[in-house]
Amino acid sequence: MHLKSLELLQFKNHEKTQLQFSNEINCFVGLNGSGKTNVLDGIHYLALTKSAVQSSDSLNVQHERDFFAIKGLFELADEKPLEVRCTVELGKKKQIYQNGKALAKTSEHVGYIPLVLIAPDDTELIKGGSEGRRKFFDGLISQLDHAYLDQLIRYHHFLKQRNALLKKFAETGRRDLTLLDNYDTELIELSLKLASQRNELLTEMAPLLQSHYSEISQGQELVSVIYETEALRDDFRDYFKNLRKKDLITKNSNAGIHKDDFAFMIGGHPIRKIGSQGQQKSYIIALKLAQFQIFEREKGEKPILLLDDIFDKLDDLRIAQLMKLISQHMFGQIFLTDARPERSRKILTDLDPEVFYFSLKEGMIVPEN
Prior knowledge:
Number of helices: 12
Oligomer: single chain
CATH superfamily of the largest domain: P-loop containing nucleotide triphosphate hydrolases
Distance between the termini: 23 Å
Helix content: 40-55%
Radius of gyration: 22 Å
CATH topology of the largest domain: Rossmann fold
Number of strands: 15
Largest sheet: 6 strands, antiparallel
CATH architecture of the largest domain: 3-Layer(aba) Sandwich
Order of helices and strands: EEEHEEEEEHHHHEHHEEHHEHHEHEE
Strand order of the largest sheet: 2-1-4-5-6-7
């Protein structure tokens, strides 16, 4: 899987940008705010149909414009071309096209282009709330299994309906318990299925996480992810139903996989509490490399790797270990950003893979080679 070319039209600070890429390493250099990360975010859109930075599509439309468009030409493992186009027009539904054909649902596209992003704010997976961790693991599984994504969408649909019904009960004083039973049945069964798949993923990921952590950090600590869920209880059906009285009082659903969390552990303790900054960075990189390896196993090809501003956020040891993996051709096509051209050139010069440099200045990107 390779991205051969990219076009950005009225996307963030890119008025009209057209790029041709190396199949190996593509490095974007320029001052902060020049649009380096926006190029990576455009690639993220083409793979996952959404921004890695902004929660709202409309915020990615260039100022005083009413739409943006992103187009990429990919070469698949069988050397077949795949053109992907994403368009967002203010006030209208986002549209994804594959080889000119509009998809009925954007979710149909997820999984076609496996992608892994390592970004400066990734440590928020450790420091932030449970929602971010659920989104990470759900996004990972969704790229591997389209049925999982469909079930997850279905789950959140019924969860929204159930919570609205609970609020309606409180407002009107009337209770339609038959309808509530129907929602309960759906949420219970979907929780059981989704929790099982989340648990299977962590079983596969465990040895990969440990291996990559030891390699990146040169440390001997044992690391793991503990899946915290009530849905794997033998009595989960009864547990869910027994919370109905509490649900009616709080006007909210208190059981289900939307309450799950993932505890990141080091030496048997939560890394968010005892881990140093270096340990936390190593853990996150190891987690993303485990994600990369799982994608490669399941898809039979290397995913695209985006590395945003990593040279500025990692110490020399971790940069050296990551570059060692790159030189050993562990990865496929890589896109990375750096605010200091001389630093990236120094780090990348001795690597075997081909490197294309792109300089960003005053909203323009010019290939340097």
